[in-house]
Amino acid sequence: MCGIVGFVGKQECSEILLDGLRKLEYRGYDSAGLAVYDGQRTNVLRVEGKLAGLVKALQDRPLPGSVGIGHTRWATHGRPSEENAHPHKAGPVVVVHNGIIENHTVLRRELVEAGVVFSSETDTEIISHLVNREIGAGASLEAAVRATLKRIEGSYAIAVSSETEPDKLIAARFASPLVIGLGEGENYIASDIPAILAHTRNVLFLDDGEMAVVSIDGVRISTIEGKPVTREPKRIEWSATMAERGGYKHFMLKEIHEQPRALTDTLRGRISLERGEVHLGDATPETETLALIKRIVIVACGTSWHAALVGRQWIEDFCRIPVDVELGSEFRYRDPILGADVLVIAISQSGETADTLAAVKDARKRGAKVLSICNVIESSIPRASDYVVYTHAGPEIGVASTKAFVTQLAALYLIAIDFARRIESMDARTASHKLLELVRVPLLVEEILQNASQIEKLAAELRDAQGFLFIGRWINYPIALEGALKLKEISYIHAEGYPAGEMKHGPIALIEENLPVVAIAPHDRVYEKILSNMQEARARRARIIALATHGDDEISSCADHIFFMPEVDEHLEPLLTVVPLQLLAYYIADGKGTDVDQPRNLAKSVTVE
Asked: Which residue has the higher pLDDT, 506 or 22?
């Protein structure tokens, strides 16, 4: 996930590009750069680290010129460093890129054999060399980019400039967003609308497989194959805040709908299906250290604690290592038994959760190694840890966590398989199957989101309920907890989540006529058991809402409302079952008129005890 900006016009553009990157900084934290044509040559300035470093560098080395491109990066291929930062230059050609070139190894080998010398570890540099080679053979910039894109496999959003044709930029996309902004005597390129909204409200959205030639005089769009495309510009009428919300009524709804993208970004570059391997680099313990681990303790708070409960099941099932799950607020006041043979995994979206941070520091003092899972780069918990796996959810503005939760689950799943493969408790064939199913999940989540209107309609019928009961078994018990928490957080309706097998140990006393009982009932190893629990609730005249697997004909006999979901490997069910519950909470809260994004008494991150 990276941010791209571009400008063609008559005014000085460095500040325009820099301002656009500020709006896109959430898309990349580890490096940033600009390339600006000064009338004779294209000058490139790149820095490692956050955008503030580029601002300082520009003070010492201004980049004059009125045509340029900029980039803020989240590393995929190649570690965060100045040489791996974008833009990448090869001869007269400069490129910025968001995405993954899947056949980069083959293309890189071809170029090296042809005598090309690479200066970075990135897949992006391949694009600059391929385009440069085409121009060297006599092609125009447009033809050179077109020929290059035909050779690339994977996802991309790119902006390309060349000193050979300095009055234009080429933009193209496939599976990564890119928008063209239309001004008077100037035009823009960006990954997202907020980057250019201060300058224009007239935009053209590129579709997959399209490219645009952007100049002062206008914009010309065609397919990669060269077929002309005619498209009317759209007028963006959003306020600045609405622009940041992407047109959604609330950040929470936007973030729910961003989950397929967030999951894809979390998985991107970390999976080898052919070898059944996970590549997390030095983000996890070395194999020698891992072999000494006898116990794992996962520490988290709130929604992250629910993710931890799911992660425990995965790690124990795949690795056969015992796992304890602790609430950070309780762990810090115990006298936990920790040592060199214990790995502590700390989970926090913000990386600033006070109780979890205290647990991390205490664990290290006691000799345990600490691996953190976090969304915010260089926050306190990652800095205090021995290892860190970053989720790539992007900024989560809504207080009630959604996309951060599912990316935490994805990270835990990757960690579980990585550990299992390295301690040889899972063979390559099994791991390949598990990872293939994981790769399918973003598309399955998208399928669920396309049916959100069903949940919206149901929410309208349920929003006046005084209480809810959420039940689940096995790996979906934590999702029952999460569903109840989401509803409590934003609608202020009392809700409880329970393991369904505990119904007769107390919670069944809460059931009265028309009480909504949400049952998480996919067709898995505990399916028959959860059906029995639903019948118990139905016999007491509860109103049963079931989450079920497509094709399940039996469940209709014990549910009043059914939301069907795609079938998936049973270990991955939580990544799907949580989505309808997020939507249910959102639509009920919105219908009640509560402050969805900033619910009363709550803050995004709990940084004090």
From this structure: 22
Q: Using CA atoms, how far apart are residues 393 and 383, in angstroms rounded to an integer?
A: 19
* H or E element in which residue 156 lies: strand 154-162
| Element holding 342 (H helix, E strand) | strand 342-348
Query: What homologous superfamily is domain 3-240 in, according to CATH?
Result: Aminohydrolase, N-terminal nucleophile (Ntn) domain (3.60.20.10)
Specify the pTM. 0.69
Q: What is the pLDDT of residue 238?
A: 65
Q: What is the 8-class DSSP label of residue 93?
A: E
Angle, vertex CA 315, rays to CA 311 and CA 319, nearest 5: 170
* Radius of gyration (C-alpha) of the chain in whole angstroms: 26
Query: Looking at 2, 13, 301, 558, which residue is catalytic?
Result: 2
- pLDDT of res. 460: 94
Written as six digits, the tokens of 232 are 């009317």
Q: What is the DSSP secondary structure assignment for residue 175, as one 8-state letter?
A: B
Q: How confident is the model at residue 506 (pLDDT cuts 50, 70, 90)?
A: confident
Chain segment 335-390, per-residue pLDDT in tens: 889 999 999 999 998 887 888 988 999 999 999 999 999 987 767 888 889 999 99
Q: Which of 89, 85, 33 is nearest to 63 (CA)?
A: 33
Q: Pick 451-592's CATH classification: 3.10.20.310, 3.40.50.10490, 3.40.50.720, 2.115.10.20.
A: 3.40.50.10490
Q: How far is the CA of 89 from the CAs of 85, 212, 278, 511, in angstroms?
A: 11, 20, 31, 67
Q: Is 2 a catalytic residue?
A: yes
Give the helix/strand (H/E) hosting 520: strand 516-520
Q: Which of 234, 361, 592, 604 is catalytic?
A: 604
- CA angle (82 as vertex; 21, 404 as ends), nearest 5: 55
Whether 319 is catalytic is: no
Please report how many Cα atoms fall inside a 13 Å half-sphere around the Cα of residue 556, on the Cβ side.
Answer: 5
Q: How many other C-beta atoms lie within 10 A of the C-beta of residue 25? A: 15
Annotate 294-317 with b (16+ C-beta within 10 A) or e (fewer). Answer: ebbbbbbbbbbbbbbbbbbbbbee
The 10s digit of each residue's pLDDT in 103-161 is 999 999 999 999 999 999 888 999 999 999 999 999 999 999 999 999 999 889 999 99
Q: CA 289, CA 285: separation in Å to the nearest integer?
A: 6
pLDDT for the residue numbered 103: 93
